[in-house]
Amino acid sequence: MTVTPGNHAVGFVGLGIMGKSMARHLMAAGFTVNAYTRTRAKIEDLLSEGAVWKDDPAAVAADSDVVITMVGYPHDVEDVYFGKDGDGGILSTAKAGAVLVDMTTSSPSLAQRIAAAAEAKGLKALDAPVSGGDVGARNGTLAIMVGGDQEAFDHVLPLFEAMGKSIALLGPAGAGQHTKMVNQTVIAGTIMGVAEALVYAKKAGLDCKKVLDVIGGGAAGGFQLNVLGARMVDGDFDPGFFVHHFIKDLGIAETEADGLGLDARALKLAKSQFERLAQEPGGKELGTQGLFTLYDK
Amino acid sequence: MTVTPGNHAVGFVGLGIMGKSMARHLMAAGFTVNAYTRTRAKIEDLLSEGAVWKDDPAAVAADSDVVITMVGYPHDVEDVYFGKDGDGGILSTAKAGAVLVDMTTSSPSLAQRIAAAAEAKGLKALDAPVSGGDVGARNGTLAIMVGGDQEAFDHVLPLFEAMGKSIALLGPAGAGQHTKMVNQTVIAGTIMGVAEALVYAKKAGLDCKKVLDVIGGGAAGGFQLNVLGARMVDGDFDPGFFVHHFIKDLGIAETEADGLGLDARALKLAKSQFERLAQEPGGKELGTQGLFTLYDK
Fold it and tell me: Which of B171, B185, B211 faces A193 most closely, judged by CB atoms?
């Protein structure tokens, strides 16, 4: 009962840096991909490789057995599913038995609302945000954190396996988004610690590369220190993950934490620090390791 | 010109959980160890294994070619080097040409003061705090972060190699302590992120072990999440590293950061959060992963 290239067409809405790489993996696995993204010109390459253009999300859904969405903000997700400007959205045209998979990082409550609306129409919805960035998308090594029911998860698993490496169903609708928020909350505290520590090292006159070598293998070690810390030390603040996207994620996490009665002080501090960074010229467009520059003044 | 068991006796002041394991590695490497610690009864085992008891730090220094100190707080370091209660301290009796190595996590400015006092007497001093905890001390796999001059470092390197694995000279006197503060500042932010994230996961009703599995290999992954986060999820708050020791370290780091003109907000928040935890019954004696319990109420 899993999807197969011969029997199932896949719709893909939102083909930015992440989405385009992900869609390519589905095409490489043999699936027909029905594609819509806001600016058609940006995916002419994908269309020339065989993706089929559709004029809006509703048109994608009308011809697809699984619909994947990978857009920007929760309000974009809302528009794409529930419709906007005369376009009825995915839910208005989805085929009977279709599975709708939102891979955008969005809010758990919106994921639950979509799942309920889908169920009311005899459809299934999964929330399946990812971690691993543009590199993970390109290499097909994303972590995919899924919320929803087991049957729908099993059905689309071959698609997840084409795009990712570490794939888990973590609970009912919203659990994927909640897990992504857990991930971002760890990172929020960690990146502040790394930025403050490496600016300390610089101001104390230490050889920062030697410092990274000696502490990177110990209790401070991890991806944020060893990879993003090394970029800080090299003065490389190019985006792997944009500051403005991280602020979006931290806003969702903050709202959810408040709702859960969690006094997430480090998360709130991180959000305010990244908002300060975003107010600097060019700050929004830096990678998250750009937080170093806020302290290094 | 390096130390050898045949030609050099090693003094060791402060034989707690860490120091005792470290001294054992020196003895296993063939060195005579002259030992002093506050409570003799606690090292009877070490004495029966061949360590030589001395009645105070000055007596240790009088008979040793290298003196290692591993005590508690900066004021203990000060007493041990500069003397207290009629004991003149290590600096009053150290042999000509001796190298004094403080492996306590202490303040960079005190390390510089000791180095200057040592130099005035024709001695050399190194600051060489460690990372890796009781397990690293026991296994001889500590990271050792050293400040001081190259010649003294080269001279005592065989001792460091007997006790540790990742060993680096990071700059002049104080650079070892500064590097340790960099390490602790990374951890300060990270452990808050991990604790907030895992309490979020619990309150959101997620399967926390599955969450750790899926996020531990990605951009949130690292020692604090993968090792201490797993202990949080298991409800294991036993000390690997005591809350009250971490508060000491964060206090030193805060003072230094202030002195460097660094607005280390996450570091200050971490210190205040651990101070709140220390006010809870039994909080001081938890391992740092006990921060979870502060949020999980």
Answer: B185
